[in-house]
Amino acid sequence: MSMLATPFVIQFSPWLVDRLPFGLRPVQPQGDTCSLAGHTIIAGYGINGRNLARTLKATHIPYVILEVNAETIRTARSEGEPIIYGDITRPDVLRRAGIDCAKAIVFAISDYAATRISVRLARQLNGTIFILVRTRYSLEVDGLYKLGADQVIPEEFETSIEIFSRVLHQYHIPANVIANQISLIRFEGYKMLRGISLEQENIGRIAALFGGSTVDNFQVPEGSPSADRSLRELDIRNATGATIIAVARNGKAITNPGPDFRLKAGDILVLLGAHNELDAAHNLMSGKDA
Description:
By secondary structure, the chain is of the alpha/beta class.
């Protein structure tokens, strides 16, 4: 009987919730959701959903949350969160969340079946919306892309990335090198970690990514051999191949500093060069080459 009743309960759960003693009401957003002008829909208010909502709020990006857990909704509403009760697999719920005018929708739930249904539905309702999906396993990635997702983040590979990133930091690998390694791992939907060969035309793009110049920052620490010296004295470009294109000092940017510009402790230098040139410049200014 319980199995037979399940579809009925799901279908009429908004009606039932509206009549629960604690007064949780179903999908009733305040005002016109589309007046939010390019908002983000967050499907699921677990840890990932809460962290995303916190970030969007801090950066003044409008958002709406979809959730089915009554206790979670009641708590979130008491905190002033724009949260709506509703099943993400239902088109009317997505429409009331403003799917037709939203800029992005992020699926931060662990229910793979519901995610698949809703990704397809979201793409049907809004052909241009950016769809980002968090999933647990790499085997689910390709299927979600085929259903219309723009970006799929498998937790198991992101954990791997976090691990190797922290290990590389311990070896003082420059941040720009680590960032490019991470970009390469994520390139083509984590195909490198999944053991899938990259298409030939994309190999050239990867080579260009690592072969071209990039930008990195270096803060002059107290006691650095580069402090209180002019750029002419340091001769960084001839010594390493990297170029200082700007210096940030006391919150102000100084672009294209001349050869007589003297560095001070606390200055943040913006360096342009290939990866090996940036590494050499970091070593020179930190005294590692001495």
